[in-house]
Amino acid sequence: MHCGSSNTDDSSSIHLQKRQRTDDKIRSATLDLEVLDCPICTEPLIAPIFQCDNGHTVCSICCPKLRNKCPFCALPIGDKRCRAMEKVLNRFLSHALC
Ligand SMILES: [Zn+2]
Ligand SMILES: [Zn+2]
């Protein structure tokens, strides 16, 4: 069966091409995602996102953990929502789903 051996050669070369393409996609996606990660737990931010008076952002899970105190400047955090960031996040998520 010569067909069988030639088939395996084809699939391996195709596999290599696919791998390179996905690597590129992942690289550009992680670049965007890093900005949208919580600096405390490094998990992707999910609305609601909270910010202090200095604009430091923290996710809603970390807010109670930090006792509503900004980890960077010790200002109160948890009262103000970071609407701008939530908008960016929603737009990014809707793009990622498509
Ligand atoms: Zn967090
Ligand atoms: Zn702060």
What do these coordinates show?
This protein has 98 residues and is mainly alpha-helical. It has a domain at 44-98: Herpes Virus-1 (2-Layer Sandwich). The chain is 54% helix and 8% strand. The chain has helices at residues 2-35, 62-65, 83-97, and strands at residues 49-51, 57-59, 80-81. The chain has a 3-stranded antiparallel beta sheet, with helices on one face. Strand 1 and strand 2 form a beta hairpin. The longest helix has 34 residues, at 2-35. The radius of gyration is 21 Å and the shape is elongated. The structure holds zinc ion (2 copies). One zinc ion binds at residues 52, 54, 56, 70, 72-73, 75.
- Residue share in helices? 40-55%
Number of strands: 3
CATH first level of the domain at 44-98: Alpha Beta
Q: Please tell me the CATH architecture of the domain at 44-98 by its name.
A: 2-Layer Sandwich
Biased composition (Polar residues): 1-15
Organism: Brassica cretica (Mustard)
Protein name: RING-type domain-containing protein
Pfam families: Sina_RING
